[in-house]
Amino acid sequence: MATHAHNRDHAALMDGVYRVQRHFYDLTRKYYLLGRDRLIRDLDVPARGSVLELGCGTGRNLVLAGRRHGDARLFGLDISAEMLASAEKAMKRNDLADRTTLARADATGFDAEALFGRKTFDRVFVSYALSMIPGWERTVAAGLDCLASGGSLHIVDFGGQQGLPGWFRTGLRAWLGRFHVTPRDTLREVLESECQRTGASLSFDSAFRGYAVLATLRLPA
């Protein structure tokens, strides 16, 4: 019962944050959400494959994935109804609505079959969402658990900024905190643990002097 109440509180918080921001979110975030386009380029979706984004936000990433993989089936979930409203408009504007299914759900625990009519996906990705999700470790587990055999989970998010000046790290984290964003310093350890649990392999890369990290977890075929 407490978990459901917490999820409702977080959904209300995200709706409050993005009720106005969603209208200019993509214009501003492109300057500091680094590595998103690289993640999408690396998805390597199989022919007529399926792609699920956890925390799809405005739909910006799904649009790019849909353009790059013209026969892929696209799926997205987000806890914010406000963000999903923008995502739905984006998919229609880019003529992708006919092969896209969006749903409101909590990325830390969801029933893919109930939401989307399928249990598994060829590719799952999370772009700058783990740093905003309470209980983000469960999102990693949920993403892996809905992967098809041979599928891969792709993650990009804020890194530890270890290659950047201390004053920059301190200022960045203080500023991010204003938007309820917290870099996940234990991300690699959590991913390694999940690989042990599932038998997945891990590729982990620090980019832009540690500003961002990109990770890929791949299940055996």
UniProtKB/TrEMBL annotation:
<dbReference type="GO" id="GO:0032259">
    <property type="term" value="P:methylation"/>
</dbReference>
<feature type="domain" description="Methyltransferase">
    <location>
        <begin position="51"/>
        <end position="151"/>
    </location>
</feature>
<dbReference type="GO" id="GO:0008168">
    <property type="term" value="F:methyltransferase activity"/>
</dbReference>
<dbReference type="InterPro" id="IPR029063">
    <property type="entry name" value="SAM-dependent_MTases_sf"/>
</dbReference>
<keyword id="KW-0489">Methyltransferase</keyword>
<dbReference type="InterPro" id="IPR041698">
    <property type="entry name" value="Methyltransf_25"/>
</dbReference>
<protein>
    <submittedName>
        <fullName>Class I SAM-dependent methyltransferase</fullName>
    </submittedName>
</protein>
<dbReference type="Pfam" id="PF13649">
    <property type="entry name" value="Methyltransf_25"/>
</dbReference>
<keyword id="KW-0808">Transferase</keyword>
